[in-house]
Amino acid sequence: MPQYKAPVRDISFVLREMFNFAEIRALPGYAEIGDDLIDAVLQEGARFCENELFPINHSGDEEGCTWNNKEVKTPKGFKEAYAKFAEGGWVSLACDPEYGGQGLPESIEYMMEEMVCAANVSFSLYPGLTRGAYTSLHSHASEELKQKYLPKMVEGIWTGTMNLTEPHCGTDLGLLRTKAVPQKDGSYKISGSKIFISSGEHDLAENIIHLVLARTPDAPAGVKGISLFVVPKFLVKGDGSLGERNGVYCSAIEHKMGIKASSTCSMEYENADGWLVGELNEGLSHMFTMMNNERLGVGVQGLGVADLAYQNALAYARERLQGRSLSGLKQPDKPADSLMVHPDVRRMLLIMKAYNEGCRMLSGWVAHEFDIAHKIEDKEERQRADDFVQIMTPVVKAFFTDCAFEVTNHAVQVHGGFGYIREYGVEQYVRDCRIAQIYEGTNGIQALDLVGRKMSAYMGRYMRTFFHPVQEFIDDYQDDEELEEFIAPLAKAFGRLQRAAVTIAQKGMAHPEEAGAAATDFLSLFGHTALAYLWTKAVILSQKKVDGKDALFYQSKIETARFYMQKVLPRTSGLFSNIMAGSKSLMDLEDEAFGPFDFAGFNMAMERAS
Fold this sequence. Notes:
Blueprint: H1 8-18, H2 21-25, H3 35-53, H4 57-63, E1 66-68, E2 71-73, H5 78-87, H6 106-119, H7 121-140, H8 143-155, E3 158-163, E4 179-182, E5 188-198, E6 207-214, E7 227-232, E8 234-236, E9 242-245, E10 248-253, E11 264-277, H9 283-319, H10 343-375, H11 379-415, H12 426-434, H13 443-454, H14 461-477, H15 484-510, H16 512-543, H17 551-568, H18 571-580, H19 584-587, H20 599-609
Parallel strand pairs: 3-6
Antiparallel strand pairs: 1-2, 4-5, 5-11, 6-7, 7-11, 8-9, 10-11
Helix pairs in contact: 1-10, 3-6, 6-7, 6-9, 6-10, 7-8, 7-9, 9-10, 9-11, 9-12, 10-11, 10-16, 10-17, 11-12, 11-13, 11-14, 11-16, 13-16, 14-15, 15-16, 15-17, 15-18, 16-17, 16-18
């Protein structure tokens, strides 16, 4: 049966060994965050995820959400679990103390978020969207709106959403039609339809605070005419209590491949009262504050589900007796050896382990820099850290979720036939993680963002925040004989990444389709190289501790890094070849030549020819 154990030991390794948490503690507002507090948060968070969220993961998938007369009911146990989640302060971990938050670093928040997503990814979307809405309001709303909405969102009494997509437009928000008509009192009347709205309606909270993109009557065409509005489900009175129902309701919920316990709603706005957030016609940039956070969150979501899949595949492989080892029986007292003796099973498990632990390190790196970007007083260091987060956001979102889909599929394969049936749970993980490659901007869009915007931004300034430290690292250790088996493949992959970046930059200026054709492979090349760098750093740390306490843990790091370099990183050679092949073979085929072809028409042509 499915099981989950939060990876607290590995999380601690990332937070405190891979990345010096003392740097975070030195930032304004974080001086009191000692190791005891970190341990308490992680351990209690792990307990909550294991004991409260994971037990309703499978049942939530089986039951799903139900819609009736504009109202949505979540599966059994979700309402009670959410009440405990909010009461425990888990919604408010990294929120501003001015509005009731605990003010903890994002570094800790992201690690907690991984555990929540692993334990129950459907559940994670309810507080996750609230956190995103909080971020946009906190960054752009007037103080009046902040005081009105943020305290109860931080407390978890109210939840939040983001409303972008409409039936006729997804990524292309320039086609957006939802209207916002200004009123004499400064408010707006919002009318329109939105689809695919996560947590748009549910029974977990007293109120739902929608952030809605809309156009005013005289707004410019395209994305330049989009504004952002806050539209509550229930209007809020002057004293903070709830008033009458606003003109917004859920007209349907989607019946989905996965995340079935998360309500994905079609929303109707009928002269609903809304209030402008930030500046008029600046809605897209304001919403991107939320979306960039959500994209990092979706990457962590993929990592969480992947870790859950790995844990269950590993447990099954250890227990399942099947066949004998090719080198002779290993468990003579049993009728067969466990799956762990078979090279191909070990290959799959090690790919899962290498990707999961590598992505966790990259997540920790980005979160570390995120804290610096938002808290450090030195302007140059703040800019450098923010540049790094900017370049890594599409990589985290797309690479993590691509890895997650591969990892969850390996989990099914390790289980064999049992992986394909619902009782064992792992088929749910494939379904649950698949959406992460699509929403918050498809992974193809993330790749285009990387090569079309981020790579060339400010004459390559974003890219230098990754390229420079990796190059310096390679230079520092290239003559270290003990590290040669790690540094040499890292240097090769990094060289491919550099050459690919130059090629895309040169060709893409004259022929944009060249960049578009290379984008997905380039993002994957970037992600694989980043993990190679981090795995090598992990080896250096582990070599110093492999003879002491937790020797097996550190030895595991070294062996997994070795596997990654020898068996996974060579994928970068193929990715590089794909990039260098250009766009011709992709773009030359005529649309009609894709088929299908009419066999009857072929027979008639043959008859005429004869």
